[in-house]
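FW: tagging you since you asked about this chain on Friday. Here's the raw sequence from the shared folder, copied in full. Didn't touch anything.
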Amino acid sequence: MISVLGAGVAGLCAATALSEAGFAVEVIEAEGAPSPASLLAGGMLAPFCEGESAPDAIVTQGQAATDWWAAHVPDVQRRGTLVLAASRDTAELDRFARATRAHCWVDPGSLEPDLAGRFARGLFFETEAHMDPRAALASLRANLRARGVSIHDATPSGRIVDCRAMAARSSLNDLRAVRGEMVEVVTPDVELSRTVRLLHPRFPCYIVPRGHGRYMIGATMVESANAGTITARAVMELLSAAYTVHPAFAEAEVVTTEAGLRPAFPDNIPAIRRIGERIYVNGMYRHGFLMAPVLAVQLAQMMTEELAHAD
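HL: got it, structure written out here
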């Protein structure tokens, strides 16, 4: 038996890959534990956009994520990512183009009619995708239960795979918290079909459609372990950015404002670590939905090889 600790994106992906590899698995979800930060994620599968600041390993390995998610959950939207900048920030758009690859210049209105005439040009990353993270994690949970995997609060048995994010900090001394804040709004007056990133020198943001006029607007990146509620500054900056994309967002109904702590290692690269008999899958930073499937597959391969060598 393998006990996977934690039911965020890292834990559910790890349990899925291990179960598919033939291992007996259980997921330990501590009663009363904080909701995983992955529930607040944008759900973007955008390896090429992440290449603007992330190491090439994220770009290269993360390209496998979209196919993995599409094979495991419904409603993965392969609509690409549209990157924009206000007229005063066009230098940011040129910089982003130089720092990334797999994009082309487009007239934003040709992809999103509601943006016609608002932006002179944009970058389109055609192969990228997005999904609703809450729905995706719910699907993984249902799939695991259908495979006979228990998700419960119990004493771990057998080999332990620790995916508890910040809760594992006492064992992972170099793990740090990076605070993220997000807003969800509903408006019938804006229709966007793909993720839109707005570049800004100080607070770049993204807008992710959730369907039925609902949009997630995120997300701040603050080097802080403060787990408190969202700040007024974050709300104002995120909504200001959304207003820049389309003024109708000013009349949107704000339905959710939340903050969470992302776990990150010093190099901001998610990793599998072994400490004694325990294996840790952690440090997802801002790459949880992009890299959790990659690490899960690597974990299953590693444990399969260990089992073969033991025989």
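FW: The chain is about 30% helix and 25% strand.
HL: agreed, and Residues 288-310 form the longest helix (23 residues).
FW: great, closing this out.
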